[in-house]
Design brief:
Elements: E1 2-4, H1 5-10, H2 14-17, H3 28-35, H4 38-44, H5 46-49, E2 54-69, E3 83-86, H6 90-98, E4 102-105, H7 111-117, E5 122-126, H8 127-132, E6 141-157, H9 158-161, H10 166-200, E7 204-207, H11 212-217, H12 219-224, H13 230-238
Parallel strand pairs: 3-4, 6-7
Antiparallel strand pairs: 1-6, 2-5, 2-6
């Protein structure tokens, strides 16, 4: 089963929460340095260490998450006063507030209609999810700020793991390692293809060349959500 870093944190995995802090990963290369490091193994083991009946197998990613809007935007100043869809996620809510916008809780299944009717002005998703849910039809302005990388963890429940022989467990772990390596190879090219198709289809794409202003604006959320694990968080940052 695949699960996001945020979903793991909602189960009490506090280390996993660090992966959803805005502007932590500066590039895909940075993320994969983490995912292939001894530090990642420690994160994969966290569910077991806190008593959850789950165990991590490997990491993957679904691309950086970006904002998209109903109306034209050019930069951070255009977010002021915008209603931006969030889930029940304190990190995301804090980030949206830091950027001068108004966090608006909307169920994901209702997001298309919420954008269509003006319940919300904007939302955020990885590029592939943006296209696969046809959000470009109702929010055709895509702002590539890359605030978080969609880190996912492949996990297996203890109920399934305990039925496996030692040989089968080795095969599962080896398959996870292979899947992770393949994800690293193909994800960026696959995302670029989707982005090219979106541009060709009329989506307005704005590149954020310098993220310094965005990072500075989000310092309150970054610091408040990492202070209890500051050393560990710095280790992730230093892998860049």
């Amino acid at each position: 089963m695949r699960i996001s870093a945020f979903a793991l944190s909602s189960y009490g995995c506090q280390k996993a929460m660090l992966l959803s802090i805005p502007y932590t990963f500066v590039s895909r290369e940075h993320f994969w340095k983490f995912a292939n490091s001894p530090l990642a193994a420690e994160f994969l083991a966290e569910p077991q260490t806190i008593g959850l009946p789950l165990r991590g197998i490997c990491y993957g990613e679904e691309g950086f998450r970006h904002f998209f809007f109903k109306d034209a935007v050019a930069g951070i100043k255009d977010l002021k006063g915008k209603k931006i869809r969030v889930s029940e996620d304190p990190v995301m809510t804090g980030m949206v507030r830091n950027l001068g916008a108004n966090p608006t809780v909307v169920n994901f299944t209702e997001l298309y209609s919420a954008l269509q009717t003006g319940v919300t002005d904007a939302a955020e998703q990885p590029i592939a999810n943006y296209r696969s849910n046809a959000f470009q039809e109702v929010a055709p302005y895509l702002l590539l700020d890359g605030h978080t990388l969609g880190a996912v963890q492949l996990i297996i429940a203890d109920s399934g793991w305990n039925k496996l022989s030692e040989q089968q467990r080795e095969w599962v772990m080896e398959a996870g390692k292979y899947a992770s390596q393949e994800n690293a190879k193909i994800s960026e090219a696959a995302e670029k293809k989707v982005l090219d198709e979106l541009r060709a289809g009329g989506t307005h794409v704005v590149e954020v060349e310098n993220k310094a202003e965005w990072v500075a604006a989000c310092q309150e959320t970054i610091k408040s959500n990492t202070s209890s694990q500051a050393t560990l968080y710095q280790q992730i940052v230093d892998l860049q």
